[in-house]
Amino acid sequence: MTDVALKIENATKRFPGVLALDHAALELRPGEVHALLGENGAGKSTLIKIITGVHEPTEGTVWVDGEEVTFKSPHDAMDAGIGAVHQERNLIPRFTVAENIMLEAVPTKRGQVDYAEMRRQAEYWLSELDLDIDPDLPVQRLSVAQMQLLEIARALSLKSRVLLLDEPTASITEHEVQVLFSFLRKLKAQGVAILFVSHKLEEVFEICDRVTVLRDGKNACTNVPISDLNRDGVVAHMVGRDNALSDLGHRAPVDAPTKLELKDVSTRIGHSNVNLHAKKGEVLGFYGLVGAGRSELARALIGADKITGGQVLIDGKEAKISSVQDALRKYQMGYVSEDRKGDGLILAHSVADNIGVTIWHKIAKFGGFVTDTMQRKSVRGFVDRLEVKTPSLQQTLGNLSGGNQQKVSVAKWLAAETEILIIDEPTVGVDIRTKGYLHKLIWEVAEAGVTVLVISSDMPEIVAVADRLIVMNEMQVVGDLPNSRDYDEMSQKIMQSIVGASDLKESA
Domains (ranges, CATH) in the chain? Predict the structure, then answer.
């Protein structure tokens, strides 16, 4: 085994109007977890796509096990022993869980697909990640968090010598993170070289051995032992200065009328007797393990799924929401989806189009006509406010980094001037500085009188940003907790709510 499993030198990638990578370098060793860090747009995902054959570098060299290689496609990279979990999901919704896991290594018997063996192997990889999912279930019926874990299971099934993980914990909870980390440690002991991309620095310090930081497409630090750095040092490399982070500060208790109330709400997807309320200007947080039903409840509230019983009250009056358009135009309710690329954004359209879509009906001239000039004028302030890094408002959204796409998904609902805003996984794929900015923005929006419902799988985030916490488990509300913002105290109360509900169900 060589001392270096993968080496990148002078990796440069140019796109129209964008220099995404500028002579970047990276070195992965067998039996280590190596962190690749940087702000949104720093070039992390571009570097991974070069390593995995999605992009060819404009300049630069890739070595695998000491030999120079040129990848013309992802299959070339897989043949060289490189597996990856990309930020963008690459699952086939109509295929089953088992078919997706074994897609790159379909077992056969006498020239035919061996479905029994496929199911057996899929069950093994699901069990390795402690995933209780039926292998025969179509992927389109999974939650976003389950899809994230399924992507990881598929990458693991390839038994790669080099494993690249781009934001693998973005949509999963602490329990799932620890299961994943346990398996990564097992792979590390087997000599696998692992590249770990994350904006969650606490995870980086827990699991990683060395770190490389990119800033503006260049190396800010390269192959540094994690033991030589602290949190402030990493942040300074990422943003180019010390003290880039600031605490959220104090937020006074909300004393206002109830804006949104759910009474005994049931949904087609399986919720029953859901009762909760949110005040005007309150930040109401939602936490729960994978499959708890938080995102599904949000989709039912905005008319994207069916409410089958109970009442939804807005300003004390029953609301009948039959579509997303109803939610926005009749009740000023918006939803920043956790699946920004599937539900929230149109990647082939411009930045301006993606933000402007929620306000076309407001800015349209007689006859419904909207000019590009009108739209740009209406959205420019929101692009500036959220510091979206884009060459122009006409830039195709798919050419921006994942974090900047997330900013656009928030910007379009701020432009719509909603009175109730549901934000699902607000900082998935967002760098640490932008994460702090978005947290402050949530508070600013709430202080302006907007009722904000925040769904997050990141427990420190939900404890930091929410005024009150709704805990869900198996499609039901199992806790309604005042938030002291003391993480140790609140994390214990949250888990007690979940465990207590599970124990009660088992005893029944």
Answer: 6-239 (3.40.50.300), 258-332+418-507 (3.40.50.300)
